[in-house]
Amino acid sequence: MIGGVLLVNVVAALVGYAYVGSGGRSVLRTLSYLGLAIVVGTGAIFAALGVLAPFGVRIGLGAFLVVAAGLCALGLVLRRRLRWSPDAPPIRAPRTLLEDALVTISAFGLVALSAIVFVGSFRSVPWLDDTWYFWLPKGRALDQIGLDPSLWRPDPHFTASYGDGQETLRFIRPDNPLWFSMLLERVVPSGARFDFRAANVELAVLLVSFVGASARLLWGRVRPALLLPALLLVFGAPELLRQAQGGAADVPLAIYLGLALLAAAGWLAERRPFALVLLFVCGSAAVAIKTEGLFELPLFLGILSLAAWRAGRALLPLWAACAGAIATVVPWLVWRSMHGVSNVFSIHDALSPSYLSDRTDLLRSAVHILGHDFTSIRQWSLILPLTILLGAAAALRDRRVVWLAPAVGLLASYVLFVWVSWADPEGSFRLIASAYRYVTPPLVTAGVFLPILAEKTLGAARHRAAKT
C-alpha cells in the first residue's frame, strides 16, 4: 500500500525543492520546507500531466517521471536565474511566559493531530463512494487507455475492457477535471485487490504538508504565539479531519486554493517573485482538481484585488499569474467541449429567470442547508466567527477594508453556492450529498488568513501596550 504514496511524495518533494529551496546549509532549515515542497511538487506535476492528457498522452508511471524530471530541471534553472526566495526577514517580538506556553502547547497539539491523522489514514478506507465511483476509475482509464472519447462520453452504462480483458471501466461524472484522478492512480496500488487506504494516506500527507507549508510561509511574518494556535484551530476543525478520511477531492482543492490566495496576499504585501510562482502553481492545481476551482479562484482573487485597490500596477502581475493558472486547464475544457462531455451545471439555466423562478423551493433549501454548514461551530470550530471578528477589528484599527477580504470571501462563496445549488438540475440531491463539502475550500482559505488577522489585531494591540 505504501509504495505508491512514497514514490509520489519523494518525487514531489524533489520537484518542490527545486522551486522552494532556501539555499540554506542547515538541515533543520531545509526540512522546514518539506511540507511546502511536497505541496508544490504534487500540484505542479499533476497539473502538468493534466495539460498533456488532452493531447493523447497516456498518464502512466513513465509520463509521471518524465514530467517530474522536466519540472525539476525547469525549477532549478528559473530559481537560479530569477533568484527568488521564499524566505522572509524575521520579526522581533517580545516574548513572555504566556507566549512561550502558547507556542509549546500549540506545537505539541499540531504534532499530536498529525500523528492522529496518519494513524487514522492507515486504519480506514475512504467513506465517500466518489473515490471508487469515478475518481479512481478515471485515473485507471488515463493510465491504461488515455482520454478515449468513447469512455468519456456522458453514458453511465458504457464500459470498456483493457489489458488482458479481465478489467472493465465504468464511471459517472466524466466532466470533472483530471488532477485528483491521476493522483489516486499513482498512489492506490492495483492488482487483484485495490487497497483504498492509500487514498487516505495520501490525503493525510497533503493535509499535514499544507499545515507545514502555511507555517513556513507565515514564519517571520506572524509571531509564533499567534501563528501556531491559529493553525491548530484550522487543522483541528472536526469536519476537515473527517473529510480527510473521505477520499474526495474537496480537501486538496481547499489546500491549493488556500495557498494560492495566501501567495496572492504575499505578493501584494511584499512584491516577492516567489509569491507569483506559488500563486501560479497552486492556482493551476486548484482549477485542475474540481470545476469549483474555476469559479472560486477568480472570485476570491477579485475580492482581494478590490480590497487592495491601492496596490495599483502590482495587480497586473497578480492577474497574469492567475490567468496563466487558468490557462493550464483550457486544453481539458476544449477537449471536453469537442467530444460532447458537458458539465452537469448549465450557465444558460443559471442565468435564466424563468428556469430559476420554477425552483424557488430549492432556493430556500439551499439558503438553509448551506447557511448551517457555513456557520456550524461543531463542524468548523471558530473559523467563521474569528474571521469576521478579527477582520472587523483589523479594519477598524488600520482603517483599511483589505482586512475584511476573508470575511467577504466567505459571504461571496455562500452566495455562489446558493446560486449554483439553485440552478443545479440535481440540486435537491446534491444539497444533501455534497453541500457540506462545498464549504470546505472557502472556510479553509479563510482559516489560512487567521494568523495574519490575529497578528494585525492582537499583535498591534500588544505592541502599543508595551510602549505605554
Core attributes:
468 residues, mainly alpha, two-stranded antiparallel ribbon, 26 helices, 2 strands, globular
Describe this structure in words.
The protein has 468 residues and is mostly helical. It is built from 26 helices and two strands. It has a two-stranded antiparallel ribbon with strand order 1-2. Strand 1 and strand 2 (167-169) form a beta hairpin. Helix 3 (34-52) packs across helix 8 and helix 19 runs antiparallel to helix 22 (405-423). The chain is globular. The termini are far apart.
In short, what is this structure?
The protein is an all-alpha fold and 468 residues long. 72% of the residues lie in helices and 1% in strands. The protein contains 26 helices and two strands.
Number of strands: 2
Head-to-tail CA distance between termini: 59 Å
**Approximate helicity band:** over 70%
Shape: globular
Q: What's the gyration radius in Å?
A: 22 Å
Q: Mean pLDDT, rounded to whole units?
A: 89
